[in-house]
């Protein structure tokens, strides 16, 4: 019985470690992020443009089109985080895949727009719905909730085995 309790403790410890890694290391390269945000001119390291989301996250676009380089411009974007070193050392480097201006009177949901967007190549295409897999492309809150539910299920199974 002590072995099963120890095993359950180790499993919970491993899951907690994964959650901490997710929190501190942020998005995984290869997944995409999308958000509403504001383009900001940052007067550091010679000056550059970044995007601060409505939730306060900071992204450093590696390929922001010239027409979007306007301080205070409200945008919706979809991008792929990149694990790369930059001279700016500000925000998460991101390759912009799609971006569009948001009129002040319009609010676009963060998960998807449901409308055609301009991608970097300039062609019009509808944003594709991505398959939701817990932990992959999900928000940290969704990932934590999913992992806590999984821990709860494992704990119930272990309690049943220990009886």
Instruction: Report the helical percentage.
Output: 25-40%
The main sheet comes to: 5 strands, mixed, barrel
Tally of DSSP β-strands: 7
N-to-C span: 9 Å
Q: Which whole number gives the mean pLDDT?
A: 74
**Gyration radius from CA atoms, angstroms:** 20 Å
Structural class: alpha+beta
CATH superfamily of the largest domain: NigD-like N-terminal OB domain
Report strand %: 25-35%
CATH class of the largest domain: Mainly Beta
Q: Domains counted in the coordinates: how many?
A: 2
Query: If classified by CATH, what would the architecture of the largest domain be?
Result: Beta Barrel
**Element-by-element helix/strand order:** HEEEEEEEH
User: What shape does the CA trace take?
Assistant: elongated
Order of strands across the main sheet? 1-2-3-5-4
Number of helical elements: 2
Name the poorly predicted regions: 110-136
Write the CATH fold name of the largest domain: OB fold (Dihydrolipoamide Acetyltransferase, E2P)
Can you lay out the helices and strands and say which pair or pack?
Blueprint: H1 2-25, E1 33-42, E2 48-53, E3 58-61, E4 74-81, E5 92-101, E6 116-118, E7 124-126, H2 140-162
Parallel strand pairs: 3-5
Antiparallel strand pairs: 1-2, 1-4, 2-3, 4-5, 6-7
What does this structure look like?
The structure is a single chain. The protein has 163 residues and is α+β, with helices and mostly antiparallel strands. The protein folds into 2 domains: 52 residues; 94 residues, OB fold (Dihydrolipoamide Acetyltransferase, E2P) (Beta Barrel), CATH 2.40.50. Helix content is 29%, strand content 27%. It contains 2 helices and 7 strands. The chain has a 5-stranded mixed barrel with strand order 1-2-3-5-4. A hairpin with a 5-residue loop joins strand 6 and strand 7. The longest helix is centred in the N-terminal third of the chain and has 24 residues. The radius of gyration is 20 Å and the shape is elongated. About 17% of the residues have low confidence.
């Amino acid at each position: 019985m002590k072995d099963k309790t120890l095993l359950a403790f180790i499993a919970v410890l491993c899951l907690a470690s994964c959650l901490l890694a997710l929190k501190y290391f942020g998005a995984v390269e290869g997944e995409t992020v999308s958000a509403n945000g504001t383009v900001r001119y940052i007067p550091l390291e010679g000056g550059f443009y970044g995007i601060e989301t409505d939730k306060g996250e900071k992204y450093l676009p590696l390929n922001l089109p010239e027409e979007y380089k306007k301080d205070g411009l409200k945008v919706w974007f979809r991008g792929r985080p990149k694990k790369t070193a930059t001279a700016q050392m500000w925000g998460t480097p991101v390759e912009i895949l799609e971006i569009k201006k948001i009129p002040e009177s319009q609010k676009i949901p963060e998960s998807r727009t449901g409308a055609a967007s301009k991608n970097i190549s300039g062609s019009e295409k509808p944003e594709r719905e991505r398959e939701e897999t817990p932990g992959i492309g999900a928000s940290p809150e969704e990932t934590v909730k999913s992992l806590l539910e999984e821990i709860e299920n494992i704990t119930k199974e272990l309690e049943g085995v220990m009886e």
